[in-house]
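We emphasize that the prediction below concerns an isolated chain of 176 residues; any contacts that depend on oligomerization or on bound cofactors are therefore not represented. The input was used exactly as deposited, without trimming of termini.
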Amino acid sequence: MKRFYRPFAVLTVAVAALVFIAAPGRTMAGDGGIGFSASLQSQQMAVGVPIWLGDALVLDPSLGFQMVSEGPTDLNIGIGLRIFPTAPDKSDAAFFYIEPMLEMFMLTPNEGDGVTDLAAGAGFGGEYFFNDRQFSISVEGQLKALLPDEASNRFSSGGETVIRTSAEITASVYLD
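Result of the prediction step, given as a token string:
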């Protein structure tokens, strides 16, 4: 799986650079176009920076990590593209979305070689907006293909591809 690390990292950095260059001119249906989010998925937590690319499109990069004293470091980098079939308006209301996503999980032990696992999938959910779209809560069901490193035991699959479902809850605050 190490062969996937460099292309995924280059893609993530390129997309992030493009978004941060273009983001100041973008709006969230007339309001702030960037925000901060926190999500919880089973035992994983992550922070994100949702960036509105238009009235119905959000780039959703995320970062999660777990560090244990005297133990390994586990880093999770993800990127999604949240697509709203109907553009959310200014009302306090719920809107359905779909979100194709890519994730990379990197485990770095104190000794020995690390492993890199990949995941690709899609989320299907709803986001409820409050206070003129400055705050939102979303709930999402996900279907992912997990592609573990040959040396990984993260998904208990012995290096074989795993298909998994999961759920995620996210709270977001958007800036003006």
